[in-house]
Each structure stands twice: as structure tokens, then as C-alpha cells.
Amino acid sequence: MASVDILFQPVDLPKLQLKNRIVMAPMTRTFSPGNVPNDKVVEYYRRRAEGGTGLIITEGTCIDHPAASGYPNVPSFYGEAALAGWKKVVDAVHEAGGKIAPQLWHVGGIRRPGVTPGGDTPGHSPSGMARPGKVTGHAMEQADIDAVVAGFAKAAADAKAIGMDAIELHGAHGYLIDQFFWDGTNDRGDAYGGDLADRSRFALEIVRAVRAAVGEDFPIIFRYSQWKQQDYSARLCETPEALGDFLKPLAEAGVDIFHCSTRRFWEPEFEGSDLNLAGWTRKLTGKPAITVGSVGLNADFLPNDGTANFREAEPASIDTLLERFEKDEFDLVAVGRALIANPDWANQVRDGKFEGLAAYEKDMLAELV
Question: Which ranges of the sequence are coiled-coil (predicted)?
């Protein structure tokens, strides 16, 4: 195995300094009763910071909008109780030597009435669709768009006020922001529909509003993906040129770091180059990029929830990741399920204790701290 030292070099990004290159990927858990992070949530994040993770990106947290939440017991990022809970998380992570950013989230058309908070509010999306061709909810009007933009900006300002080190906007995986990007769920005839440049208007308004709310020096991370949970084969951009045209306006609007969500980090994004999505993003925008997708998963880490068939051993190996870091392809790497199973994954990798890494199992979530 190549030396893992490159993973543990301090990283000095323009607005964010980290002790290493390892990021905890955001993973929804639905373990915040009443939508308020409790002491178990505090301990969950503290343990991963103590275990050596440089930057924690929290599970998705819902902004203050009636249609933002799509699942029970997902933590909110508004209101006195929820923000007080998150302040405890921030303090615990900082005391353990880590840094933390909330992922700010609106599920869009995926919401179904009855989920708390929100009650009977239907899903909100650009064209009333959660997936192509099927209208199930409310097509957003201008007042809805304005309210959601304001909700993201307020959440970002609150994150800064309680001591978070950055924020991440969830623009991936077929949730609201991505529903505007994707032509499969956006067939609007106004300024928010049309080609991808016009379908990006909603996201650009959010980024600009967040930047105005937090000031110039506070980091904004933007997570995006080609694939959607509604369609793993969906693609926003078929060429590097199209990807550059999509990303550059987001960078100009205020995005500091792109979190490039793929299902397998080792797979090339476009023919003719070995660069993955994060590699292309960094090359095209000049902005720092986070890679993610089955990091550290092998035969022992196969998920049993049926969401994907992850390749075994070599493609997802740490060696493959290290080789790409040595080529300076991207800046940071986000680790998901491996950190669920091993709160001290970073320290174990640093110390070469690979044989001691526990396998991820879905049932771990039930009792996890």
C-alpha cells in the first residue's frame, strides 16, 4: 500500500483550513425526535471528530419552509430548540478538534403530505413532479420560490451565528434544487425553465442570497450530482464543455467548494480522460473539490440495502484514492458508510490498522452513536 500521509496533510483552502483531507459525508439518519438534535446526535458527531475526521458535513437539515421535510425525525435547522441542539453539536466537534458544516436541505417534490413538520403541505417542486412525467404535488409559484430562497439564506446566517465553520447546500440526488436543474422534473415555461442555464436560476438565486447573508469570508459548499435517486443514469451534462458552462456561474455566484457526488469515485466522468467528476470540476472552475462515492468499500463493506452494487476490493481501494491525490486531481475526500461503522476510521487508516476496520451493516443505524 502507498503511504497514506497525503490524506493527513493540513489543507489550507481559501476560506477553510483543515487538519486533513478527510470529510464525513452527509448521511440521513432520522434519529432526531421532534426534529431537534439531542444528546445522542451530539455524541455521534463528537465521536467522528475525535476519531480524526477533518471536516464533518452533517446529515441533511431542513430549512424553514412548510414543504422542506420529507422524512420523519430529520433535524431542522431553524427554531430555538433545534438551533440550541446544533450549537451543542458544534461545541462538541470543536472540542474534539474537528470542524463542521450543516447540509441545508429542501426535499422538494419527494415530500408527501403528513410528514412532520409540514402536516398536509404537499411536495413543492418546479413543475409539481418528483420524477419525470408524474405530477404529484405543487408547482412552485414565484412567492414559493422567494420563500425558499429566503429560508436557505436564513439557515446559513444561523449556521454562522452558532459557530459552524461552513455550510453546504444540497443541490444533488433529485431533491429540490436538483429538481430545478433536471429537465426530467422541470418543464417550466418561465425564467426558471428552459435550457440548463435557465434551470440553474433558482440555485444561483439561493447561492447569492446565502452569500449576502453570511458575508464574503464564510465558506459555501455546494453538493451536486449527475445521477438522481429517481434515475441513476440521469445526466445534466454530457461533455466537459457543458459541465463548465453549468458550474462556472455557480462559482461566480459564491460557491467556494464543490462536493461532487458520484456512486463510485474511481469511474471516469467523460470518455477520453481518467478524471472523475471532482477532477473535472476542479479543472473547469479552479475551485476546491470534494470527491465521494464508495470510498473504502470492498467485499466486507457491501451495503445490504439494495441501493447499489458496489465493486469489490481493488477499484474502491485506498490505493486508488491515494494515486488520485498524488496526481492532484481533487482536494478532499468524503467518506460515508465506512465512518458509520468506524467512528475512528481516519485514525485507523492513519495508523495502518486496516484489519481492525468493522464492516458496515444497515442495522448499525438503529443503535448508532
Answer: none
CA-CA-CA-CA dihedral for 291, 7, 301, 233, to nearest 10 = 10
CA distance 154 to 253: 17
pLDDT tens sequence across 198-210: 999 999 999 999 9
**Would the pTM count as exceeding 0.85?**
yes
Task: List pLDDT tens digits, range 293-311.
Answer: 988 665 433 334 433 333 3
Bridge partners of residue 170, in order along the sequence: 223
C-alpha cell at 362: 444497515
Give the separation between CA 117 and CA 74, rounded to whole angstroms: 9
Environment class of residue 167 by beta-carbon count within 10 Å: exposed (0-12), middle (13-18) or buried (19+)?
buried
Question: Which residues are known to be catalytic?
Answer: 175
Report d(CA 311, CA 350) in Å as an integer. 24
SS (H, E, C) 182-196: CCCCCCCCCCCCCCH
Structural domains in the chain, sorted by start: 5-367 (3.20.20.70)
